TrEMBL record, chains A, B:
It holds the Pfam family MRM3-like_sub_bind. Belongs to the class IV-like SAM-binding methyltransferase superfamily. RNA methyltransferase TrmH family. It comes from the Bacteria. This is 23S rRNA methyltransferase. SUPFAM superfamilies: alpha/beta knot (SSF75217), L30e-like (SSF55315). Residues 31-100 form the RNA 2-O ribose methyltransferase substrate binding domain. It is an enzyme of class 2 (transferase). It comes from Dellaglioa algida. Keywords: Methyltransferase, Transferase.
Amino acid sequence: MEKINSTQNAKIKYWKKLQTKKGRKKENKYLLEGWHLVKEALMVDAKIEYLLVTNDFRYFDDIINTEIEQVEISSEVSLYLADTSTPQGIYAVVKMEENRQLTIDNLAGGWLMLDGVQDPGNIGTMVRTADAAGLTGVIFGEGSADSHHPKVLRSMQGSQFHIQLVNADLMEVATVFKENHIPLYGSELNEDARSYREIPAAANFGLIMGNEGNGMRNDLLNTTDANLYIPIKGRAESLNVAIAAGVLMFQLKA
Amino acid sequence: MEKINSTQNAKIKYWKKLQTKKGRKKENKYLLEGWHLVKEALMVDAKIEYLLVTNDFRYFDDIINTEIEQVEISSEVSLYLADTSTPQGIYAVVKMEENRQLTIDNLAGGWLMLDGVQDPGNIGTMVRTADAAGLTGVIFGEGSADSHHPKVLRSMQGSQFHIQLVNADLMEVATVFKENHIPLYGSELNEDARSYREIPAAANFGLIMGNEGNGMRNDLLNTTDANLYIPIKGRAESLNVAIAAGVLMFQLKA
């Protein structure tokens, strides 16, 4: 097994770049960190290019038999690659799925769409919830945080292996939904909008969630079949966007 | 107005202690940080003892007319007191509400109970959601993170001023609910538990959420009228605890 002890090593520098959006986009790969997430990637047979492991990694015996190429790294290299401050000492270099084009042939099911959602923790939690609620995928519109940001990876807990993550222009997606007569719902903090409880659960639908502070873009609000509101019964000004998405997805998905 | 420029000042050292659980418990006060939260405290007439403000604080004119005692602090002192890395330069020293004893006379409404929930961000979001869903309060059981932890304060967005936050032994609380024939629900990740959709919405109820990794304690699970399960339709292993609490509270509260 190859051993790398220097953060100046060219391979390490290359993998470190995968912790940036630019690096991920260029190489179409990302770095998965921590045993829980790497184990999930191994179990679902994700396209893993390398496993990077420190020699004191606890579960070494569990991975030693895989055919995936392994590289032993020093603790110093591990810290350099890590997004967390106390890394476990295991990483996987994973190839991203190709970005899917949404057409009538693959539009079946429930879709969550993100219009400028910015907090990576919120986004990861929303993907994990979409997975749990039985949705087909999550569409990342312009202005939303990157789907493979290290914090998104941590909070989505492997759901990128279970459901589709797609980057697309949401105005174009809205047109495809409209043309195919699939209900498309927006969400807004507006008591005059339609209460989410009035909407029957369905097999196929799209649900758009907006930016944490500003909500959905107006032009997008105008393209939907209905914009939904979760009635606030207490004195809170609003709901966290991931909570709102959770309540709506479990209501809408049949 | 008093001006303090040194982190060695006795008052500053005293207020700094309020950023720890021990300090808050001893003094029965906490430090609120940032304009959004302080503004909320001013609006609801919270028991504010002092406002601490840097001289370059942007909204200085908005607070100058309050009768609350103000102290001008240097940027260095502000950074020393802050829990965030880029503080806005405003703090309020707030007196905590007295811990409430739960009796039949004040048990009306919906109550969320936390059994060993540990992540402050999750907890704050759950309090904010309980507020939005119209619950009466949140009961912090043993082993849950502190209700006035700086990160809890940030994610609950002022909901401590809207609903009750109570520290109590959940086994004793369960007994009070039982004696008064108020439905008490647990939650568990167990397909044999009762689907949450079968439970009718009600004005009065208790809902217990468990630890992120281990769920609820067994002895507490045994005291409930029913333990609820949110069916997972996809391949996610579980839901984030704050999302699960959100889905359940909006289902249960009439």
